[in-house]
UniProtKB/TrEMBL annotation:
Keyword field contains Chaperone: no
Domain Major facilitator superfamily (MFS) profile: start-end pairs: 24-413
Organism: Streptomyces mexicanus
Keywords: Cell membrane, Membrane, Transmembrane, Transmembrane helix, Transport
A molecular function GO annotation: transmembrane transporter activity
Pfam families on file: MFS_1
Protein name: MFS transporter
Membrane topology: Multi-pass membrane protein
Keyword NAD annotated: no
C-alpha cells in the first residue's frame, strides 16, 4: 500500500472474494432489530412444547427418561444442522439457509399439532432442532451483517437477546393458551405458524447479499470451527456458555416434574411462567451488563451458573419453590452472560466470511453437554428418584461452571476488549 492509501486492484481482490458482501453498513438501525426477529420466532418454537409434555404424557404415556430423549432429539437435529449450516451460510449466503429452516419450523408446528405418539414428537423435535441450528449460525450472522462493522456490539446483544427471549416466550405462550383456549396441544402451534410466516417475510426483505465466489476450499459438512488464532476466544465462550445453557436445558426438560413434586400441581401456566422468567432474566441481564468488560461478563456468567446449581440442590432437598425459581433465574442469567460474552468475542475477532461457522462452533460446544447431561439426569431420576438425580446433575454442572470461571481467570490476556 502506498502512502496515499491506495492499493493495486489485484492485491485487494482476494479479500473481497472471501468477504460477505452486504449493504449492512448503511442499513437503518430498525433493520438490525428486525433482522433478529427470525431468531426470536424460531426460538419461540424451540421451547413451546415444554408445558405440554404433561398432556402428551397423560394421553400417550411415557416416562421421564423418554421425555428427556424427546428433548435430546432436538439437540441431535441442532448439532447435525450446525455441521452444515454455518459453512453453507458463509459460502452461499444467509437467506439460502434461513428460508429452508423456517420451512422446517413450519412443518414441525404441523407435526406437533397433530402428534398422537412418541415418534411424531421425536420428528417434530428433530425438525425444530435443525431449524434452530440454522438460525443460531446463519441467523445470528445475518444480524451482524445488517448491523455492519460499526455496530458489532449491538449486533451481538440483539442476536443473543433474540435467542433467549424467544426461548422464554414459547413456553409462556404455550402455558397460557393451553390453559385458557380449546385444543391445548394445537392452539399455540397455530399462533407460532403465524409468527414464522412474518419471519419468512422479514428474511425475504432482509438487506443482505449473497457472498461473492470464494477461493477457499474445504468440506461442506464438517465440525464447525474458527480461523487459526481464534481458538482461545472460542474456548473462553464455550467454557461459560456450555454450563449455562445446560442448566437452562435441565429446567426446561425436568422443571415441570420438579414443580409437580414440590407444588403437587401440573399447571401449564406455572411451568411456562417459570421458563419465561428464566429467559427473561437471561434477556435482562444482557442489557444490564452490555457495557462491562467481556472478561467481567464471562466471569459473572460462571458465578451465576454456580449459584444456580447450589440453589437447585437446596430446592430439591428442602422442597422450596422460591429457591427453585431462584435457581431458574440464576440459570438464565448464567446462560445469558455466557452467550453474550461468547458472541461478543467472536464478533470482534472472527472475519465476516467465517462468522456463521464460528457461531455454529460456539453452539456445538454448548449444546453437546446440554443434550447429554439432562438426558442422563432424566434416566437417573427414573432409577433413583428425582431428588437424587437432580442432585447428581447439579453437582456435576456446578463443577463445570467453576472450571469455566477458572479458565476465564487464567486467560486474562486472551479476552480482547473494545477500545
Amino acid at each position: 500500500m502506498s502512502e496515499s492509501g491506495t492499493m493495486p486492484a489485484k492485491a485487494v481482490q482476494p479479500r473481497i472474494d472471501e468477504r460477505v458482501q452486504s449493504p449492512a453498513a448503511v442499513a437503518p438501525t430498525w433493520w438490525v432489530w428486525l433482522a433478529a426477529w427470525p431468531v426470536t420466532a424460531v426460538f419461540v418454537l424451540s421451547n413451546a412444547a415444554t408445558p405440554l409434555y404433561v398432556l402428551w404424557q397423560r394421553d400417550i404415556g411415557f416416562s421421564k427418561g423418554t421425555l428427556t430423549v424427546i428433548f435430546a432429539f432436538y439437540i441431535v437435529g441442532l448439532l447435525g444442522s450446525l455441521l452444515v449450516s454455518g459453512v453453507v451460510s458463509d459460502r452461499l449466503g444467509r437467506k439460502p439457509v434461513l428460508l429452508p429452516a423456517l420451512g422446517l419450523a413450519l412443518a414441525a408446528c404441523v407435526i406437533f399439532a397433530t402428534a398422537g405418539n412418541v415418534a411424531a414428537l421425536i420428528v417434530a423435535r428433530l425438525f425444530t432442532g435443525i431449524a434452530v441450528g440454522a438460525v443460531v449460525s446463519a441467523g445470528m450472522a445475518a444480524v451482524t451483517d445488517v448491523a455492519g462493522s460499526e455496530r458489532k456490539r449491538l449486533a451481538a446483544l440483539l442476536a443473543s437477546c433474540a435467542m433467549v427471549f424467544g426461548a422464554g416466550l414459547g413456553p409462556l405462550l404455550a402455558g397460557i393458551l393451553s390453559e385458557t383456549l380449546p385444543a391445548p396441544t394445537v392452539t399455540v402451534f397455530v399462533v407460532e405458524m403465524a409468527l414464522l410466516v412474518t419471519a419468512v417475510l422479514a428474511v425475504l426483505r432482509m438487506p443482505v447479499r449473497r457472498p461473492q465466489a470464494s477461493t477457499r476450499r474445504g468440506a461442506w459438512v464438517r465440525v464447525p470451527g474458527v480461523p487459526r488464532g481464534n481458538g482461545p476466544q472460542l474456548t473462553l465462550g464455550i467454557a461459560v456458555f456450555a454450563p449455562g445453557i445446560t442448566a437452562t436445558s435441565f429446567v426446561l426438560s425436568l422443571g415441570p416434574s420438579l414443580l409437580a413434586g414440590l407444588l403437587d400441581t401440573t399447571s401449564r401456566i406455572v411451568s411456562g411462567a417459570m421458563a419465561f422468567v428464566m429467559f427473561l432474566a437471561a434477556t435482562g441481564v444482557q442489557f444490564a451488563v452490555q457495557k462491562l468488560r467481556r472478561r467481567t461478563i464471562l466471569l459473572a456468567g460462571a458465578v451465576a451458573t454456580t449459584l444456580s446449581m447450589t440453589a437447585l440442590i437446596t430446592a430439591v432437598h428442602t422442597s422450596s419453590v422460591p429457591v427453585l425459581i431462584a435457581a431458574a433465574l440464576l440459570a438464565g442469567a448464567g446462560q445469558g452472560m455466557g452467550q453474550l460474552g461468547g458472541l461478543s468475542l467472536l464478533n470482534s475477532t472472527v472475519p465476516p466470511h467465517r462468522l456463521a461457522e464460528a457461531n455454529a462452533a460456539l453452539n456445538v460446544g454448548g449444546y453437546v453437554p446440554a443434550g447429554l447431561l439432562p438426558v442422563s439426569a432424566g434416566y437417573l431420576s427414573d432409577a433413583v428418584g428425582l431428588t437424587t438425580g437432580a442432585t447428581v446433575f447439579a453437582t456435576t454442572l456446578l463443577s463445570l461452571a467453576v472450571i469455566g470461571g477458572i479458565v476465564v481467570l487464567a486467560a486474562r490476556r486472551r479476552v480482547p476488549e473494545p477500545a
